[in-house]
Write a structure and sequence with these properties.
Blueprint (H helix, E strand, L loop, with lengths): L1 E5 L2 E6 L2 E5 L3 E6 L4 E5 H9 L2 H13 L4 E5 L4 E7 L4 E7 L6 E9 L3 E3 L2 E4 L1 E8 L6 E4 L4
Parallel strand pairs: 1-11
Antiparallel strand pairs: 1-2, 3-4, 4-7, 5-6, 7-8, 8-9, 9-12, 10-11, 12-13
Helix pairs in contact: 1-2
């Protein structure tokens, strides 16, 4: 379980499959159809494409007024890597049928803390999206 936690409250929770665990590096898998809990504003923004709803998420998080609801992951397979003490995690996105690489994602976040059910961390919102061949990159969610 990967939980995003802020001010003692769970912001999101996604079950993952463990791929490997060395004690300092944890690799997890995630694929379409996995049911999780996500902020209702994020789910609504993804469903509707309404950017105003997406932008309300950080204010709701800071105010502690977010609501969680069910969400099913869609479209990609993700292999994630969390390393002890690092302020980021790495996520390799692939097309689910052919396994074709789509992008590398650097998620800036608080260092993951292991719990009895998985890990807790906090997304710091801005992300780095890298081309699969490492030829280019762009920051995502800089406005947040």
């Amino acid at each position: 379980m990967v939980r995003r936690v802020h001010a003692g409250k769970v912001w999101s929770a996604q079950p993952h499959r463990e791929i490997s665990d060395t004690g300092t590096v944890l690799e997890l898998g995630y694929w379409p159809g996995i049911r999780s809990l996500a902020p209702t504003t994020r789910a609504a923004a993804l469903r509707t494409g309404d950017d105003a709803i997406r932008k309300s998420g950080p204010q709701n998080l800071a105010a502690g007024t977010r609501d969680l609801g069910p969400w099913a992951w869609q479209h990609t397979v993700v292999r994630s890597r969390f390393e002890t003490g690092e302020w980021f995690s790495l996520h390799y996105f692939q097309e689910p049928r052919a396994g074709e690489p789509l992008r590398l994602y650097v998620n800036f976040e608080k260092p993951a803390v292991r719990t009895r059910i998985g890990i807790d961390t906090l997304d710091l919102l801005v992300d780095l999206v890298v081309e699969p061949d490492l030829s280019g990159y762009a920051f995502k969610d800089e406005d947040e």
